[in-house]
Design goal:
It is a single chain. The chain has 119 residues and is largely without helices or strands. The protein contains 2 helices and 4 strands. The chain has a domain of 70 residues. Helices cover 14% and strands 8% of the residues. A two-stranded antiparallel sheet has the order 1-2. Strands 3-4 form a two-stranded antiparallel sheet. The longest helix is centred in the first third of the chain and has 11 residues. GO terms for molecular function: DNA-binding transcription factor activity; sequence-specific DNA binding; zinc ion binding.
């Protein structure tokens, strides 16, 4: 397996083997419009979204690690090694953005049966 590096500037995540890191490394989407959105989002000065094509992202081996996707960007809301991205997901967590508080979905009280006992 080739060594994979995250293409986000300032991210030092590298994968040397499938089990060497907890992050998953996502290839850029084959949809040209979505690929351009990813390129704009990661702000890598080496790759201009106006001229970089999907083929160029594959030739250069560009990848974005799972640290730059929210839990809700994954099918089932779980961000782990085996999780798949939802269609249309765009990386949005970067060193230059404000950290979002990510909450894991919970059941609200209205959805739970609550038993109240009076003494």
């Amino acid at each position: 397996m080739q060594r994979s590096m995250c293409s986000v500037p300032g991210c030092g995540n590298v994968r040397t083997s499938r089990l060497s890191t907890p992050q998953k490394f996502h290839v850029f989407p084959s949809n040209p419009v979505l690929c351009c959105e990813w390129l704009e989002a990661i702000k890598n000065s080496r790759f201009d979204p106006k001229v970089t094509t999907v083929l160029m992202t594959r030739i250069h081996g560009l990848r974005v690690c799972s640290d730059h996707f929210r839990h809700q960007d994954y099918i089932g809301g779980q961000r782990n090694y085996y999780a798949a991205l939802k269609r249309g997901a765009v990386p949005s967590l970067f060193p230059w953005t404000e950290p979002e508080s990510e909450t894991v979905p919970t059941t609200s009280l209205s959805q739970q049966q609550v038993t109240v006992s009076w003494l």
